[in-house]
Amino acid sequence: xxxxxxxxxxxxxxxxxxxxxxxxxxxxxxxxxxxxxxxxxxxxxxxxxxxxxxxxxxxxxxxxxxxxxxxxxxxxxx
Length: 78
Hints:
Layout: H1 2-19, E1 39-41, E2 54-55, E3 63-64, E4 71-73
Antiparallel strand pairs: 1-4, 2-3
């Protein structure tokens, strides 16, 4: 029985090495709007907030966000 447990651990370690550590993390949408119809969304950010807010419609390309700037969204776009 111990040999099977060892083999299982070895297989798991091999898979982790193959996919790399970056494959362990899931993508997270911290705040996500999905358009049910075409239009735009904007956020009003109070001046006391110092967070670096960025937007993206594809989850890859990110741009800094300026308060109350309209973000155009097509139907189904996030």
